[in-house]
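This week, look over our next protein:
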Amino acid sequence: MAPPGKTRKRGKRIQSLELPPGTFRRFVSELSHPDKLLYLACALFAAVALWLLTGAWNPPMQYRLGYVPPAEIHPRVQFSVDDDQATVKMQRDAENEAMSVYTNEPARLEQMRTRLQTIINQLTQAKQFDAEVERLWNEFFPIADETVAPPNPMEREEQFTRLKTLFQREGMLNAFQQRVEAALKPFASRGIMAPDQLEQKQGQAASIIVVTAGPNSNQQIISLNDVLRAQVLEKIRKSLQLELEELSKGEDLRFLVEAVTFWVEKNLPGTLTFDRQATILEREKAVAAVETQQRIYSTKEPVVQGGVPLQGRELFLLRREHEAYCDQRSFLSKTIYSLAILGMYYALGTLCAIYLVVKCPRILRDLNEYLLFLVPTCAAIALGYWFDDRWQAEVLVVMILAMTISIVYQQEFALLVTACVSLAIVLTSGSSLVGFVTVAASCSAATLSMTRIRSRNKLLFVGIWAGVVAFTTNYGVSIVAGQPATLALLEAAAWQGAYAVGAGILMTVLLPFVEKAYGILTDISLLELGDAAHPLLQKLAQRAPGTYNHSITVASIAEAAADSIRANGLLVRVGAYFHDIGKMLKPEYFVENQTASDNRHDGLNPAISTLVIIAHVKDGADLARQNRLPRAIIDFIEQHHGTTLVEYFYRVASAKVEANPDEREVDETIYRYPGPKPQTKEAAVLMICDAVESACRTLVEPTSARIEALVEELSMKRLLDGQFDECGLTLQELRQIQNSVTKSLTAVYHGRVKYPSSQPA
């Protein structure tokens, strides 16, 4: 034992082991990198843009068309709305009280006065009381009828004589003309309305607008009683009596006053003409001048009754109440609410970012890839907010986003993003829990159905299945939430199902654009691309038939191997078709295209031969780009050799160095492919199958045991060479690939029964 107070020294120092960083540390380390500041700026801008687009400084309105409130809804603040009925009544009253417009023509009255003067002149200048004079003079007296006694010719002639005697006085004729003109002048400016014009008058106004045309045109408002012909006649009668009595000079002129008054009464014209167009304009002005009447709702008065589905009028009132409530909110409350919404955006964004760091870091390593994820996600929130407010069709937008992410990335990531986007839409648009559950269930059903898309009908079937889920979920959850099982609720649920089906149809149309934008390949495109009639494959078959046969065999083996580890076997098969297309430029330098006596590498320096062999990778990638092959296929061409060693020529070069010590030491890097190493499991599968299939051709007797040993040797050599370090391939998956490749190659190179040779005759 060690003495007290002392500790025993250990013979060996224990080395400290540093544990790998956890998820949180990886997340912080990833985002704290200087290159990620631009990513954070994009996320900040996206959150602010969503805040502006969704008006997230005010809480959303929570009521939607068809919702049945369980109780009365009282306004939170007093508000007012336009009272259309009261406004229409006021407009009708204003229109009815609008004054009619008449055009005054004073010339008509002047013409009557001139004619009166002319007749008086003719009568006063007549030599005798003949028939013509009697006819003119009779115009000043009423015609005999049942109520009027027949005229006495002697009395008429006597009055005519008195008329001549009266007008023989000096200046009498001019004075008479002036008096008559003075008596009629006030009525010329105001106008006289005939009975037929009164019938055309519109409205109940007691006054009219009189417009006098001419050089002294004017417009005046005159009482109707001042222009009616009956009232005007009475006033003219009095005015004529007063004016003509000024001419009497002691004589009795009642006969002249009565005669002239009777003649004027009989010949008085109407000078006012109804102006229909001007009256219509006047009525329109009166209607336009009416202010919109307001209906005020107090906080004690219910806006909507309980148990009644919300229709257009009720929703309108609730929207006005919500606007009034938002208008009275203080700046502080708006700021706090805005910060809460922005915090919600950042929390959901952080959740997605953590997933990307752990499961899909490639999105955070390329800005374009990051924006291709960020922009559609934010657009889905904005469009979902807009669609929900108008048609409650947010499921259409979110389902398209869910299917896109499922195709481009992963299904589990699509589920996460769908949940975050649905929650953001619900919180910003004011949608109910029913809406959130409907969207989440529909998108989950669509996402989980997006396994393999080998035909365009698949997306339609996905939409139909999601539509069934949307319909049943919306109807069932609505009933659970307390909504009555009415036909309107059934119709609303049917619309949700229709939107989901529409998303599937729309995604079928958008699929080619999604593939091009994200540089991904669906099974549909892969099947089209893997057609043997493809121009590049046709050229490969013609120029390098050995390479073509090798590619076809590798494709079959690699597809089965990829399927064994649940990778994309179809993608590997199509990638295998094109992985060696670069060999068609110099096919004679590759062994599968050579004859036994023809080897172009004889006489070449091993380094030069290596350059020729390695060049087929770059040549193949260039051919693929020229023919616009997808990026995923180009990756197979560039990665199927990784950074492996061209062993044959490396050994030849090493042998020369050993034989001649004066030679420079062989640089291994010259004899390696430029890479990159396989970045996906599919590329790793193709690397193994390509190497093993080529090596199997060298086996004299390819038995199952020899094939298995060869597969084990070559795959382990690449594992130890670090070729699988960047593709995420596990040892268990590597073992599954080895087993699958062994079975496939054994089936290809199985033994055959030898038939006995024919005996000579």
Observations:
- The two ends are 100 Å apart (CA to CA).
- The chain has 29 helices and six strands.
- Residues 487-518 form the longest helix (32 residues).
